[in-house]
Amino acid sequence: MPFGASSTSKSIRFEFSHHVGVNYLFAPWISWLLLLQSSPFLKPKTPSYLLLWWAFSIPVLALDVKIYGQWFTKGKRFLSMVVNPTSQLSIIGNLVGVRAAAQTGWMECAMFLFCLGIIHYLVLFVTLYQRIQGNDYLPTILRPVFFLFVAVPCIASLAWDSNAGTFNMLSKMLFFLSLFIFASLVRQNNGMGG
């Protein structure tokens, strides 16, 4: 066994089991999906674009299954005990995947990812809203992740726009929801003296 291999596997195992750290595993896949969508060299509906979309989307879905599975099956890992604002990164991963799938013309796949993301968002939002009082469950160093409350409805608005082909009423509702949440967070932080 190479030097440090056992410590690396322990670190990976720890990251997968940590209720905050596991959510950051979505970040590289989210950034790669965003880079794919903004690439001037790859056009949607080309084989290389489709291959990269699959390569970047499958890990997001695998992480979704892992996280959702532990909430449903492990008695010690109930959602109400482990949820935190970083849990919204998985939703952002799904919604960024929606935009890329819509660009390729795979509307059913885009709708599947959108539904998965929105249902997960509703469950997380209600759970987080019930726990947000006092902010004692989240270390001070992680408080900047509260921006994710604003990011999810913004990305959902853009995802629905890509899926529907127009910035319709649902897109506008999600956009206004993000503005409302932003105003609420600003108000809360001013009330805390920070």
What is the first-to-last residue Cα distance?
50 Å
Helix content: over 70%
Based on CA atoms alone, the radius of gyration comes out at 18 Å
Largest sheet: none
Write the H/E string, N to C: HHHHHHHH
| Count of DSSP-assigned helices | 8
Give the beta-strand count: 0
Strand content: under 5%
Calculate the mean pLDDT score and round it.
83
Structural class: mainly alpha
Residue stretches low in confidence (pLDDT < 50, at least 5 long) are: none
Oligomer: single chain
Structural shape: globular
Overview of this protein structure:
The chain crosses the membrane at residues 21-39, 51-69, 110-129, 141-160, 166-186. This is S-type anion channel SLAH1. By secondary structure, the protein is mainly alpha-helical. Helices cover 71% and strands 0% of the residues. Helix 2 runs antiparallel to helix 3 (47-73). The protein is globular.
Task: Describe what is shown at a glance.
It holds the Pfam family SLAC1. This protein is mainly α.
Write out key terms for the chains shown.
194 residues, mainly alpha, 0% strand, voltage-gated monoatomic anion channel activity, Voltage-dep_anion_channel_sf, cell membrane, S-type anion channel SLAH1, transmembrane
Give the topology, please.
Blueprint: H1 5-17, H2 27-38, H3 47-73, H4 79-82, H5 89-104, H6 107-131, H7 148-164, H8 169-191
